[in-house]
């Protein structure tokens, strides 16, 4: 479950922290417990990023639909 603090992260903050988590996991040298904690944190950050991207997609889709509706209305007037 994502915390209130995670929900307040911007896309860029979550992405940058996720990059750092992946870097640390790829570097190795952590205990199993540390690796699991990093993996769990990475999953949380990925969810935050996914929500931001889904929100951006919804806004783009709405803007495109609005533009198409305007164009259709203008064509109907001609």
From TrEMBL:
Catalytic activity entry? Exonucleolytic cleavage in either 5'- to 3'- or 3'- to 5'-direction to yield nucleoside 5'-phosphates
Q: What is its EC number?
A: 3.1.11.6
Q: Where do transmembrane segments lie in this chain?
A: none
Q: What is its main location?
A: cytoplasm
An MF annotation (GO) of this entry:
exodeoxyribonuclease VII activity
Q: Which UniProt keywords apply?
A: Cytoplasm, Exonuclease, Hydrolase, Nuclease
Q: Name one Pfam family in it.
A: Exonuc_VII_S
Enzyme class, broadest EC rank = hydrolase
**Localisation:** Cytoplasm
Instruction: Briefly state the protein's biological role.
Output: Bidirectionally degrades single-stranded DNA into large acid-insoluble oligonucleotides, which are then degraded further into small acid-soluble oligonucleotides.
Q: Assembly state and interactors? A: Heterooligomer composed of large and small subunits.
HAMAP family in alphabetical order: Exonuc_7_S
Record-stated family:
Belongs to the XseB family.
Name recorded for this polypeptide: Exodeoxyribonuclease 7 small subunit
Native organism is Streptomyces musisoli
Lineage, please?
Bacteria, Bacillati, Actinomycetota, Actinomycetes, Kitasatosporales
């Amino acid at each position: 479950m994502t915390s209130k603090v995670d929900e307040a992260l911007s896309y860029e903050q979550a992405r940058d922290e996720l990059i750092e988590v992946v870097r640390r996991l790829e570097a190795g040298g952590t205990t199993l417990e540390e690796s699991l904690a990093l993996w769990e944190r990475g999953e949380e950050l990925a969810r935050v990023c996914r929500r931001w991207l889904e929100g951006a997609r919804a806004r783009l889709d709405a803007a495109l639909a609005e533009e198409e509706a305007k164009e259709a209305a203008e064509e109907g007037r001609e």
